[in-house]
Amino acid sequence: MQTRLIKKDEISNQLSAFYIARKGTDFTTCSFSEEELEYVRKKIGKGDDLITVHKLDKFTCLVIIDEDKTFFSQLESLRKHSSKVLSIVKENDYAEIMAGDLINEPEFILAFIEGLVMSNYCFDKHLSKPAEKANFPATISIFCPYLQEDDVKHLQASCEAVYLARDLVNEPLSHLNAVGLADIIKELGSKKGFAVEVMNKQKIESLRMGGLLAVNKGSIDPPTFSIMEWKPENCINEKPFVLVGKGVVFDTGGLSLKPTANSMDYMKCDMAGAAAVIAAIDAVATCNLPLHVIGLIPATDNRPDGNAIVPGDIITMFDGTTVEVMNTDAEGRLILADALSFAKQYDPALVIDMATLTGSAAAAIGTQGMVAMHNSADKWLTALEESGFYTHERIVLFPLWEEYREMLKSDVADIKNIGGKEAGTITAGKFLEHFTSFPWIHLDIAGPAFLHTADSYRTKGGSGVGVRLLFDFFLKYAQKG
Predict the structure, then answer these.
(1) What is the DSSP letter of 68?
(2) Which of 53, 181, 262, 383 is the most buried (most CB within 10 A)?
(3) Catalytic residue, candidates 201, 303, 333, 416
(4) Weakest mean pLDDT among 77-81, 130-134, 150-154, 303-307
(5) C-alpha to C-alpha distance for 40 and 23, rounded to whole angstroms
(6) CA atoms within 13 A on the CB side of 338
(7) What is the pLDDT at residue 136?
(8) What is the pLDDT of residues 1-18, one digit of tens each?
């Protein structure tokens, strides 16, 4: 699906269209008859906020802004309405539609188009007969006097990055292991112009990344550690932003095999953090943002082979910390810890890690947001929270009080990889904090990363959560200079 900006003289009355409007908007631009205008007024009077006028060969849809909602809620309502409009488009085989702004507020029309594009996602590459209408509409023509070409470019790049992340998450292990993920990163780097270094198992062993190697011990496939770097000549940040994404391409739980019903069925999504980081850097490079951004992707699967780590094993991490592994299903923090330690060499302005880390996070806030914890990153967290509200990829802050460190004490090693039954999300964050010495934000996306039923524009399966959050955060930073 492509988007293009058009001028007033390019508006075609032959196209089906939707318009963003308010209750008091003048609808003469929409070419309604008197009867149709009366119908629209009645619907608005009843409080309807999605009004469709059907004609023989087209439709005109009015999306009415709810004045009683907050700005961020208005944006989200527009995104959700878009999936309903998309159903009409597909039912009638409209290859091209027009989006019109009747209120001169570009952010609203961008939100609606964003929802429309993301609603149109379909993962059908393994179907013998792919969906016939997967690409309808093929084109969205946008009329909005105050919208700039860069706004459309940024929107297109963001949506394409979400598609990329969803594709990566939805791909099964049979088609995407750690080596395959690294190969995709190399292809993207070659295409988009960011540098990529992929460390193989031998290199990882030479660096003594004990966390990544321990998780990989039960696998028949080798691990990888990929470094992505976008550094244009005009970058405005003196110190780089570093993103770390958990890349467990499939998680059985290891010898601490996942015990609950259906808990393993969708564990191809355990690399959703890596997918979000890869896609976010892809979008940053596509839009040529003047920022120095580095991505670190430790990747492996977690399997219960005869050589796999067992509860009680002690491993030595990249930074020399010894860890008593009490549960092999708490593996994500082990590979992230090595990557966080590795990030120190960049003297980063900020490190953000993103991971499907704990079921406790999903239990706490469900699919409607992600859990955050941080260490000396207050000013960055404020900006990230703002992006969270703007994109509706919201952040809920959990504490990292020192008392939680006591729950990770080990009798035989420097630290354990799990705490007790309580505060599982927080103790996981506290474990990661041990390996940081820089401003750092941890985002646990276990709840929203993979949806078992569609939620309007958030399609079933991999949601691509985190991509729009990170891209909006970077875009706003770049625009402020």
Answers:
(1) T
(2) 181
(3) 333
(4) 130-134
(5) 10
(6) 29
(7) 66
(8) 778 888 877 877 788 889
Residue 319 tokens read as 């930074």
Express each pLDDT in 439-476 by its tens digit: 999 999 999 999 999 999 999 999 999 999 999 999 99
User: CA–CA separation, 426 vs 420, rounded Å?
Assistant: 11
Sign of the alpha-carbon dihedral angle for 344, 350, 354, 358: positive
**With the C-alpha atoms ordered 167, 447, 393, 299, is the resulting torsion angle positive or negative?**
negative
Percent of the chain with pLDDT over 70: 99
Mind listing the pLDDT tens digit for each residue in 265-282? 999 999 999 999 999 999
Strand intervals (E) in 74-143: 96-101, 139-143
Domains and CATH numbers, the chain: 2-145 (3.40.220.10), 158-480 (3.40.630.10)
Taking Cα atoms as reference points, which of 221, 265, 246 lies closest to residue 336?
A: 246
Amino acid at 404: Y
Cβ neighbours of 31 (radius 10 Å): 12
Residue 166 known to be catalytic:
no
> How far, in Å, CA of 473 to CA of 477, rounded?
6
Q: How far apart are CA 350 and CA 339, in angstroms?
A: 14
* Residue 366 exposed, middle or buried by CB count within 10 Å (0-12, 13-18, 19+): exposed
84, 186, 231, 258: the catalytic one is: 258
